[in-house]
Amino acid sequence: MDIEQYMQSVGRAAREASAKVAASSTAARNAALLAARDALDGAREALAEANARDMARGRDNDLDAPLLDRLELTPARIDAMLEGLAQVAALPDPVGSISDMNTMPSGICVGKMRVPLGVIGIIYESRPNVTVEAASLCLKSGNATILRGGSEALSSNCAIAACLAEGLRGAGLPEAAVQVLETADRAAVGQLIAMPEFVDVIVPRGGKGLIERISRDARVPVIKHLDGVCHVYIDEGADLDMALDIAVNAKTHRYGTCNTMETLLVSAAEAAAVLPRLAVAYADAGVELRGCERTRRVLSGVAVASEQDWYEEYLAPVLAVKVVDGLEPAIAHINRYGSHHTDSIVTRDHGRAMRFLREVDSSSVMINASTRFADGFEYGLGAEIGISTDKLHARGPVGLEGLTSQKYVVLGEGQVRS
Amino acid sequence: MDIEQYMQSVGRAAREASAKVAASSTAARNAALLAARDALDGAREALAEANARDMARGRDNDLDAPLLDRLELTPARIDAMLEGLAQVAALPDPVGSISDMNTMPSGICVGKMRVPLGVIGIIYESRPNVTVEAASLCLKSGNATILRGGSEALSSNCAIAACLAEGLRGAGLPEAAVQVLETADRAAVGQLIAMPEFVDVIVPRGGKGLIERISRDARVPVIKHLDGVCHVYIDEGADLDMALDIAVNAKTHRYGTCNTMETLLVSAAEAAAVLPRLAVAYADAGVELRGCERTRRVLSGVAVASEQDWYEEYLAPVLAVKVVDGLEPAIAHINRYGSHHTDSIVTRDHGRAMRFLREVDSSSVMINASTRFADGFEYGLGAEIGISTDKLHARGPVGLEGLTSQKYVVLGEGQVRS
Fold it and tell me: What is the pLDDT of residue B84?
């Protein structure tokens, strides 16, 4: 297969399909999603067979256990995919709404209409359920998608794609509105991220290495987050029971997620009171602490945190702890070492809470809440295609609205410029 | 001068200043703008001398007359700069507003806060008044700016920068919030667009060549428009007097602007009625027509339009004219040959008007209005740093809001994820 030629034809088909999807009715897009759900439900056997081929190949290639686990399409996971399609169909359609319509001195009315982005490229790793999730969100928001899953999931993804195509056909929408790349060739990714004429934005989902590579080489805008180095800061005078709950939840609720706390900052005024209680709670949970010098003066058994620890996204039961002299050094630490993802203050003081909200330069900034809330579902977006720590376009959890943009619409009655 | 070292120090200073500007009060930023205005007013002599040096060098280097004209800082142009600073100071501050605050089932309140982008790099050509315009919009919206003007305007831009610095100092804001590059070395631009650690977005203002080069090489997001290939479509049944007014205004109001119509589309049903009247009006204005075969059947004297003409941004008294079979081919032509800038339909039919609004994929889509209205002032934005034909972040005229983004803010009372 000539990869360049193949990708050009995929891109052209996506661009053509995107105009039709953008002009389609909400009802047609919802019908396609529900028909795809029925098609998947009817193809459980074919899905299981395709997935078994991927699993066998994965075992032959010595994939490690967590990768194999993510690759597996269990009946429960297929149920979750069906449920997800129904949920996305039930979400409100962001496309076509007009806002901020105002009459100007010239007499023209100017407003903004929400419109799809066009063609969205999704690059992701082993979990085949992402195929359904990403395709459904892009379709609901009026976009065409090109999906490039991990090569280890190729058979599963192609089987899923056949069901999505059936759904599109059933609703009278072009099948090219959702295309799964049918090649394991890595060159296809290089092409996908360098076709601005056919692809409007790339959303990579996966490890940091993948995302860094894509961001570096892309000739198309990328919606991404690289790291989740999230902080909780315990302010002087904070409710220490609340601080304990939040600090423990933010670290131990799940270790492998990007909104998990990786560094805890404690105001010097509370260090002696709160650190020993935290140490007990973290010890119970099996969390290893690495502290600054002042932390170690209170908790003598704790290992020394190096400069590198402040940058670290452990994704593991490890936590860096630093005692700071108050709000200002806490904010400075977060803006310097953090990844602009999610940071929370535990405080009783309104003024300091407001300063934290304003001055912490992160996609989610919280007062008295666990960083684990930074999530599309918890924010009421209904779904999430990813979390962005970029500053342009979308910051934080990206839902349907993040897959659209706004164009200006002008309603006149014959006005001309004088 | 070691350019790389110089640019790193400029970038680092801008990043540091950006945190201070972002945290500053509206009053402080307005005070800086008004103090800069007073400083410019008091420095008219120094500005005239600096500008005279640029003009003399320009003449020595055989700059052509339009470039020399744009370079000149006349007293009236200095007055306009002062007026501009006062206007920007008077605009509402977009920073800090919180919207869409809602309570979630978990009890947390989630909303979005408008925040500055951070550091904005502006790359522009000869007109020194852009230095004031761009710097004032970036400062008002809480951003730090790095300005790279044309080398031919270096003395003028440095003289203006000294006044802006005086304004910042007077208001207690860091001078590095506005930095004009003090070098004519082209390598500085290459550095500026490749420092994502220090620069959040680049806004190029200038010719297509400049913008293409920057977009290709940038390692930082770019807000830009390349072309303004704008259309007016005269629908069947349109008010032909209105159509004539709009088509003439959209072409002849100004030839060199990006929102000027470059191709006129006419429904076949109206060709015989409207084309002869248009031909007279355009002949009076000295506009040369280039038509498709069907246009030439009505207007026999008109030159043949080639395929290339449909892509052309003439920026001159030349107009391509095409007869189409109705709305659908008109939309198809615009989406294929246009530049996604601004397109207008003249129609009496509500259904076709709505389809045009929805399906034309341009940053501004208009009904019964001249394309010349696509402008930040006409849209009520108060000011405009440029027009974007990109799809992410900002489309169409970019005002203060386009220089900001939104982060999520979460107000809790101790909530944790369960």
Answer: 94
From CA B9, how far away is CA B15, in angstroms rounded? 10
Strands (E), A326-403: 342-346, 364-369, 386-388, 396-398
pLDDT on residue A226: 82
- CA distance readout (Å), A48 to A147, A183, A326, B164: 20, 20, 56, 67
Tell me the nearest-neighbour CA distance from B407 into chain A, angstroms. Answer: 5
Three-state secondary-structure class, residue A197: coil
Tell me the mean pLDDT in the region B184-209.
Answer: 92
Cβ-count burial B309-331 (b if 16+ within 10 Å, e if not): bbbbbbbeebbbbbbbeebebbb
What is the structure's pLDDT at A219?
A: 87
Interface of B with A in 73-132 (CB under 8 A): 96, 102, 104, 106, 108, 110, 113, 115, 117-118
Query: Would the CB atoms of A113 and B357 count as touching at under 8 Å?
Result: yes
* ipTM score for this prediction: 0.93
- Per-residue pLDDT, averaged over A114-130, amounts to 93
**Residue range A306-326: average pLDDT?**
97
Q: Which pairs with CB-CB distance under 8 Å and at least 24 residues apart come from B79-82?
A: B80/B129, B81/B40, B81/B129, B81/B132, B81/B133, B81/B160, B82/B37, B82/B40, B82/B41
Q: Hey, which CATH number is domain B230-378, 3.30.70.1350, 3.10.129.10, 3.40.309.10, 3.90.950.10?
A: 3.40.309.10
Q: Tell me, what's the pLDDT at B225? A: 84
Alpha carbon separation from B142 to A100, A257, B114, B116, B394 (Å, rounded): 23, 32, 10, 5, 17
Hey, CA dihedral for A28, A30, A33, A35, is it positive or negative? negative
Q: For residue B59, what is the enclosing H or E element?
A: helix B44-60
How far from A154 is each of A138, A151, A159, A168, A183, CA to CA, in Å? 20, 5, 9, 21, 8
Q: Is B358 close to A23, i.e. CB distance below 8 A?
A: yes
Counts for chain A of helices (H) and strands (E), in that order: 14, 16
Give the model confidence (pLDDT) of A208-251 as tens digits: 888 989 988 888 889 988 889 999 999 999 999 999 999 999 99
Question: B350 and B343 in contact (C-beta within 8 Å)?
Answer: no
Residue B126 has pLDDT above 80, yes or no: no
| Partner-chain contact A117 B335, CB within 8 Å | no
**Closest residue to B380, CB basis, from A102, A368, A409:** A102
Specify the CATH class of B3-224+406-410 in words: alpha beta
User: Residue B337: its pLDDT value, please?
Assistant: 97
- A3-224 and A230-378 share one fold: no
CA B234 to CA B346: how far, in whole Å?
5
Question: What pLDDT does A418 receive?
Answer: 92
**Phi, psi dihedral angles at B204 (to 5 degrees):** -90, 135
For B366-379, write each residue's pLDDT tens digit. Answer: 999 999 999 999 99
More confident residue, B67 or A1: B67
Cβ <8 Å between B108 and A411 = no
* Chain B residue with Cα closest to A117: B391
The answer to whether the CB of B343 falls within 8 A of the CB of B258 is no
**Whole-angstrom distance, CA of residue A259 vs CA of residue A254:** 9
Domain residue spans in chain A?
3-224, 230-378
Query: How far apart (Å, rounded) are the C-alpha atoms in residues B254 and B274?
Result: 22
CATH of A3-224, picked from 3.40.605.10, 3.40.630.30, 2.60.120.260, 3.40.50.300, is 3.40.605.10
Pseudo-torsion of CA A64, A66, A68, A73, nearest 10°? Answer: 180
Residue B79 has a CB neighbour count (10 Å cut-off) of 13
Question: Does residue B16 sit at the A interface (CB-CB below 8 Å)?
Answer: no
Q: What is the mean pLDDT of residues B19-48?
A: 97
